[in-house]
Amino acid sequence: MSISLKGDQPFENIPSVKAKALRINLNNHIYGTFAEIGAGQEVARHFFRSGGASGTIAKTMSAYDRAFSDAIYGEEPDKQYVSESRLKKMLSHEVNLLETRIGRKNHPDKMFFTYANTVATIDFAKKYKGHGWMGIKFQTDPKQDYSEIHIHVRFHNFEAKTQQEALGVMGLNLIYGAYYKHDEPRKLLKYLYDHIDTKAIEIDTVNFSGPLFKNVDNRLISMDLVKNGMTEAVMFGPDGNNILPARVLYKKHILAIRGSFRPVTKVNEDMLDKSIEIISHQENYNKKEHLTVFEITLSNLKASTNGDINEIDFIHRATLLCSLGQTVMITNFKEYYRLAEYFSNYTQEKIVLTMGVNSLIEIFDEKYYDHLSGGILEAFGKLFFKNLKIFLYPMKNPEDGKILNSNNLQVASRMKNLYKFFKYNGKLIDIFSYNEDLLDIYSVKVLAMIKNGDKDWENMLPKAVTKLIKEKQLFGYKK
């Protein structure tokens, strides 16, 4: 295996797999258990092979049989055994056993840990690549409460043995990072790929918790996954914790709104409200089966031409969206067809993309598809699949004040027939019940007004957003 993560140190400066395992084994204070389900005891094996494991490993186990696993950790109500819920139960159960069986009185200096994973590797027919959860519950001070790191991975190679090897190395890197890199969690994230081909395994969800990580904002960790190329899309919920996209998108009807949300304006609110109003009038509408996602692309987060991301600015946007109870998605999908393609991996239900006129005009610009062998036709085949529709929010022409919608917007001459095809086949739906007074509101304008102390901005944002900006002094607001 070889490391290929951009920006990392040279290979020769990275401790070997054996060196990492041996350093942990030779630390007399680190002591714990391994519980691995689904891919063999790949992580524990590294510690046995490196030598000196007797002082580190209390127990290793693999409860492969579901009935036996249930007898130990309890049943999963949804029957999903490769899940974060299962991982949490495994970690808690094994730590409790450690605390019960190894008395603190006789071992006052031991720092306990439990590593666990629950994994489904590639199936025999090689149609299902596999995925899994891994995590560690650990302490760096015997008197300290436990901290935890939970990670979800997806495999991208097609050999079970290679998947198991990658899992084994990443698990070792996680344990090593937990003890020797916990004070730099964002670097710890990169070190998970030491000695692993980054194309072989994807990390799409990670959460840090506990006293060691009390100052960690998991939304920044989530953004790092995309920025570092570890995955192409991440999600976090209203509580700010990262959530597994596959779990929340599975079999859902999806409404997605892309924007910079810098800050969230009444226009964004109106786009959402009017879209939901249209959807709610559809036959067999069930609110519980629908998911609304506010999506921000990585390019929308970059604050300058050199590609840097203003992290404080990102947190301000995320704070506002979370305060409105929204699910937020950060992606590397500059083109809309890639977003639609991603959603279609997890649901066959209806997908709605709500966008403004300018965004739709860009979709019909051929230059965005030069990298595709099939050009714009290939992209449209992925974008306008059978269950996808675009809800179009109008805009006011700044030159003459004319309202632009699907009936009078202008696309390139070569694209006119293609545009008509999709428009008249019901793929484009205009939002007509909009508030025309809002069409003069632009995030860029609002942001400048906030920084310049112009109070008129307060009427351009939802009340809850205005209140939060003033309370927390976001986006340069000063009392």
Tag the structure with descriptive keywords.
Maf protein; elongated; single chain; 6-stranded mixed sheet; 19% strand; 16 strands; disordered N terminus; alpha/beta; Rossmann fold; 2 domains; 8-stranded mixed sheet; 17 helices; 479 residues
Show the helix and strand layout.
Layout: H1 17-25, E1 30-37, H2 42-50, E2 57-61, H3 66-73, H4 84-101, E3 111-120, E4 131-138, E5 147-155, H5 160-180, H6 185-191, E6 201-209, H7 218-227, E7 233-236, E8 242-243, H8 245-249, E9 253-258, H9 266-280, E10 290-297, H10 298-301, H11 311-323, E11 327-331, H12 336-344, E12 351-356, H13 357-363, H14 375-383, E13 388-393, E14 395-396, E15 403-404, H15 416-423, E16 428-430, H16 443-452, H17 463-472
Parallel strand pairs: 1-2, 1-3, 9-10, 9-12, 10-11, 12-13, 13-16
Antiparallel strand pairs: 3-4, 4-5, 5-6, 7-8, 7-11, 14-15
Helix pairs in contact: 1-2, 1-5, 2-5, 5-6, 12-14
Structural summary, described in words:
This protein is 36% helix and 19% strand. It has 479 residues and is of the alpha/beta class. It has 2 domains: 11-216, CinA-like (Maf protein, Alpha-Beta Complex); 247-472, Rossmann fold. The chain has an 8-stranded mixed β-sheet, sandwiched between helices. Strands 2-1-3-4-5-6 form a 6-stranded mixed β-sheet, with helices on both faces. Helix 1 crosses helix 2 (42-50), helix 5 packs antiparallel against helix 6 (185-191) and helix 12 (336-344) crosses helix 14. Residues 1-12 have low confidence and may be disordered.
